[in-house]
Specification:
alpha+beta; Alpha-Beta Plaits
Length: 277
């Protein structure tokens, strides 16, 4: 789309006609800058919630070696697989599927005072299994070191019965908040786009007015036209416009190769191209 002007019309503008052009341009720039700042704030708030939800989702949806174990700990607690006393503690150990047989045959000998036959399978997911094992607290660190040597991963955990429910509730709250913020952001963007587009058109009108005065002089006497030609017909329209308005002094205004290289438009009429979204 482009706006072009030739003699015999005055420019109509939504801003007060008696306001200086510099002041009009400054107010338009201030309005667009305000929209940009508001967009940054709203987008930052939306992305903040999105990142928090993503982190919570990744934490809950990874493998047994990385994911949050709250739900599995709750399951083990309900099955009375977690033993905690003055001298004994329960460890959760992630074992690769292909090493499950090795774990069952060797865990009792990985350290001193491992409770015999205390290992129970809690879950199997993908390539990993999650086992419990009861050891004496005095030898828990030695047991963990022996597990690392055999590529068994001991996962730290807190036996909090409400943790799983809290995580689910938080995920639901964040999902609802994200949907709400997205809807509000889209609604704001639709409104802000109209305001920004109007500002762009005002700036184009100011440019057109100034360049037309510089070319045709005072008093203002030129026509303003908004053209939206089909892409394949644009060259023909340019030719017709040049033919209609390329007479007398306007004939000296012609596009040169170096003008095109600089991104400048030079025609026998004043023309401003608007890149439409």
């Amino acid at each position: 789309m482009y706006v072009c002007a030739h003699s015999h019309c005055a420019l109509a503008c939504r801003h007060p006609a008696r306001r200086p052009l510099r002041e009009t341009a400054e107010k338009l720039a201030e309005g667009v800058a305000r929209l940009e700042e508001e967009l940054k704030v709203k987008a930052s708030e939306y992305n903040g919630v999105k990142q928090t939800l993503g982190a919570l989702t990744r934490k809950a949806g990874g493998t047994l070696s990385t994911r949050d174990l709250s739900d599995l700990v709750a399951k083990a607690s309900q099955a009375k697989l977690l033993v905690e006393s003055e001298h004994m503690t329960t460890l959760l150990v992630v074992v690769p599927q292909h090493s499950a047989k090795d774990w069952r045959s060797s865990y009792e000998s990985l350290a001193q005072l491992v409770v015999p036959r205390s290992s129970k399978l809690v879950a199997e997911e993908g390539d990993f299994c999650l086992f419990t094992v009861v050891v004496f607290k005095k030898f828990a660190e030695a047991f963990k070191g022996a597990c690392r040597e055999k590529s068994f991963q001991v996962r730290d955990f807190v036996n909090d019965p409400g943790a799983s429910a809290e995580n689910s509730a938080e995920a639901g709250r964040l999902t609802a908040e994200l949907a709400s913020r997205k809807a509000n952001l889209e609604e704001w963007c639709r409104s802000a786009f109209g305001e920004a587009f109007a500002a762009m058109m005002h700036v184009a009108a100011v440019r057109l007015f100034v360049e037309s005065i510089l070319r045709y002089g005072l008093p203002p006497c030129f026509a303003t036209v908004l053209c939206a030609p089909d892409k394949k017909h644009e060259k023909r329209m340019r030719t017709l416009l040049a033919s209609a308005f390329g007479r007398n002094a306007s004939a000296h205004w012609k596009q040169r190769e170096d003008d095109a290289a600089k991104g400048e438009e030079v025609h026998p009429y004043v023309s401003i191209t608007l890149a439409m979204p």
